[in-house]
Design a protein that fits this description.
The complex is a heterodimer.
Chain A lengths: L8 E16 L4 E17 L3 E5 L6 H8 L7 E6 L2 E2 L5 H8 L2 E4 L13 H11 L6 H13 L16 H13 L5 E5 L7 H18 L2 E6 L2 H7 L2 E6 L2 E7 H6 L4 H9 L5 H5 L31 H5 L5 E4 L2 E3 L6
Parallel strand pairs in A: 3-8, 3-9, 6-7, 7-8
Antiparallel strand pairs in A: 1-2, 1-4, 4-5, 9-10, 10-12, 11-12
Helix pairs in contact in A: 3-4, 3-5, 4-5, 5-6
Chain B lengths: L3 E14 L2 E14 L3 E5 L6 H8 L8 E10 L2 E2 L5 H7 L4 E4 L13 H13 L3 H14 L5 H4 L9 H13 L5 E5 L7 H18 L2 E6 L2 H7 L2 E6 L2 E7 H6 L4 H8 L50 E4 L2 E3 L3 E2 L4 E2 L1
Parallel strand pairs in B: 3-8, 3-9, 6-7, 7-8
Antiparallel strand pairs in B: 1-2, 1-4, 4-5, 9-10, 10-12, 11-12, 13-14
Helix pairs in contact in B: 3-4, 4-6, 6-7
Classes of the chains: A alpha/beta, B alpha/beta.
């Protein structure tokens, strides 16, 4: 890819926490909290794609939504272009939202079935008073063309489109306000394999064309390796490892990353048979009562006493390679 | 070669919809040998599940109807059996595991009760025998404290554990054939690895034949010996798993393999993408169903539907074009 690597930080997430309270009983007292995201820090550089991977329930989507302030984070900072989004309110936040958009997982649920595609793609322009009347139509036509849909489709309804085409509509809507940053929350996992490649190629082309920055949230590790420049791995609400794509995939340091990567099937029987597999025991613990110390210790093949006692720091062990594990030197 | 266990011949299944008949399966024939693991690959709507469901007469009718074909199991046609006979085969000699372990279990019955039911029904066990056997089965699929956990309800199990329960139920009557319909699609990769590991172990211990239906070529590469690739209700390629990945011969298979990023990929170019959408089959295709998306398509491809023809030992393909030379076969 031709993106210039100047490592300018576009978004900085500092110790972000998102706890959802649990209420019980007649008086609905708070009896606990789901620690969905429990202290995560990372930077996103301008023009790059940062992949965010992990299994279901690890908090990756919650992180994405908390960044965009779709949830009110419990603690931490989200600094976008030198502004802490958490302290922003009202009109200031609305103006910020233009620069940050989201593409959702389910192309069936994320488009209003009662609106035409033209209305869906044009709505952000109207809401933010950017265009009106004929200009909206022109912009919508241009956007649809950009994402590879026939502009004449703008009068059709979402149900008339296939999954891949709907996801293109979702991409067009995200592009309408000319954002600099887009969170792609599992944008392809609901699509068929041959359609996934179409959408990923589109996202890559748009990134080059508009110098977009992506936070690409996914559970498909192969696709994340393909599209990302750097990758962060989450487990039970915390980041366990963050590194450049090839560093992470060739030499994963955290035992969880190692197990996760070895579990991904490779579409090649010879390469697949020659791999060393780490099969994890059990399931991910509940985020209501996460394990003490290291979150992964209950399933970790190499856990020691220390791992139960203190929480490992997320530290840089090599240039640009962060890991949260006591046992990595 | 070993004996043929199940022989599917020319199955055709249609579904009546308000817009006309959908021709989901259009003449599918294949054999399953004793102890063999056969992978069936294809995208949604290609007919891979419907073929198997048709053979076991599990298609809801109406709207579905199997209009032609035979499914010979131990010399008898499953499609012509009485309801009593087929019920004996299903769950007894041929068992099925479905994609969604959340909806395949009855939420108001304990796990134990659900496992014991087929044992008492098919094998005529007493309540006590069935309970003991159920505990053994749960232990066999790797659920700790099996005996106590029989009293739990499905919601007390995680997704991976529920799928283990489904496998335990399927194996409870020592089937000769296990049909697994996307059993790991709803699971996380580390849990998928556990389940695949379990199935491989049980296959080696019990020696049953497996038909594994999936859209994930990676899963097939790790598990199957022979693979069928389906498209538009037809088998378009059939091969050993090693040969399929080494010498894919149908343009669709080539596209499918090319459109997958690999977790061990070294170059990060654009993905190969198959243009267009999979067909919706309101008519039985008379020409090649893949022709509209095929870059090799010739005049003949639009006129006649190719039949499966042998290209090398154990490798058959339905295509008029020799993709190596780009010329007609």
């Amino acid at each position: 890819m031709t993106t210039i690597n100047n490592n300018e930080v576009l978004l900085r997430v500092e110790d972000l926490k998102m706890h959802f309270p649990i209420f019980r009983g007649v008086l609905q007292r708070q009896v606990g909290a789901v620690h969905a995201v429990d202290g995560i820090s990372f930077d996103v550089h301008r023009g790059e794609t940062l992949g965010l991977v992990g299994e279901s329930g690890c908090g990756k989507s919650t992180t994405g939504r908390a960044i965009l302030q779709l949830y009110k984070p419990t603690a931490g900072k989200v600094i976008f272009e030198d502004t802490n989004l958490i302290t922003l309110k009202g009109e200031d936040m609305r103006n910020m939202r233009r620069k940050m958009q989201m593409i959702f997982q389910d192309p069936y649920a994320s488009l209003n079935p009662r609106m035409t595609v033209g209305e869906i793609v044009g709505e952000p322009l109207v809401v933010h008073n950017i265009a009106s009347g004929k200009e909206v139509q022109d912009r919508v036509a241009h956007l649809l063309d950009t994402v590879g849909l026939n502009p004449a489709f703008s009068t059709r309804y979402p149900h008339e489109f296939s999954g891949g085409q709907r996801q293109r509509v979702g991409v067009a809507r995200a592009l309408a306000l000319q954002p600099s940053f887009i969170i792609c929350d599992e944008p392809i996992s609901a699509l068929d394999v041959s359609i996934q490649a179409q959408v990923v190629n589109l996202l890559e082309e748009l990134q080059e064309q508009f110098n977009l920055t992506y936070l690409f949230i996914a559970h498909d590790l192969s696709m994340v390796r393909h599209i990302s420049k750097r990758v962060a791995v989450m487990y039970l609400g915390v980041a366990v490892e963050l590194a450049g794509r090839d560093d992470l995939y060739i030499e994963p340091l955290h035992p969880y990353t190692q197990a996760l990567l070895s579990a991904v099937p490779i579409p090649d029987p010879i390469a697949d048979a020659s791999r060393k597999r780490v099969i994890l025991e059990g399931d991910v613990p509940s985020p209501v009562n996460p394990p003490s110390g290291c979150r992964f210790r209950t399933r970790c093949p190499i856990a020691e006493k220390l791992c139960a006692e203190s929480r490992p720091e997320f530290r840089e062990v090599k240039s640009g390679h962060f890991v949260a594990c006591h046992l990595v030197k | 070669m070993s004996d043929v266990l199940l022989e599917i011949k020319g199955i055709e299944t249609q579904f009546k919809t308000p817009d006309g008949y959908v021709h989901a399966v259009n003449g599918v024939s294949f054999d399953l040998k004793e102890g063999e693991t056969l992978g069936v690959v294809g995208e949604s709507g290609c007919g891979k599940s419907v073929t198997m469901l048709s053979a076991l007469r599990l298609i809801p009718s109406p709207p579905g109807k199997t209009v032609a074909g035979e499914a010979l199991f131990a010399g008898k046609d499953l499609l012509k059996m009485t309801n009593e006979e087929i019920r004996h085969v299903r769950g007894g000699q041929i068992a099925m595991v479905f994609q969604d372990p959340m909806t395949s279990l009855n939420p108001v019955l304990t796990i134990g009760k659900q496992i014991e039911e087929p044992l008492m029904l098919h094998l005529g066990m007493t309540k006590q025998q069935a309970q003991n056997r159920a505990a053994e089965l749960l232990a066999m699929v790797g659920i700790p404290n099996a005996k106590d956990r029989l009293k739990d309800y499905p919601h007390q199990y995680s997704g991976g554990m529920r799928q283990r329960v489904m496998i335990a139920m399927a194996l409870s009557c020592n089937p000769q054939i296990l049909i697994a319909d996307e059993p790991t699609t709803a699971l996380d990769v580390t849990i998928q690895a556990q389940i695949m590991d379990l199935v491989k172990r049980l296959r080696d211990e019990l020696g049953m034949a497996i038909i594994w239906i999936t859209h994930d070529l990676g899963v097939v590469a790790g598990l199957a010996k022979r693979v069928l690739v389906m498209y538009g209700g037809f088998i378009i390629e059939e091969s050993t798993v090693t040969d399929l990945f080494a010498n894919p011969s149908h343009p669709y298979t080539i596209g499918l393999i090319g459109s997958l990023p690999r977790v061990d990929e070294k170059e990060h170019g654009r993905l190969y993408s198959i243009e267009g959408q999979p067909p919706v089959l309101y008519q039985k295709p008379l020409a090649c169903p893949f022709a509209p998306r095929c870059k090799w398509a010739m005049e003949k491809c639009w006129k006649e539907n190719p039949i499966l023809e042998s290209v090398s030992e154990g490798h058959r393909v339905a295509c008029w074009v020799d993709v190596k030379t780009g010329r007609p076969r």
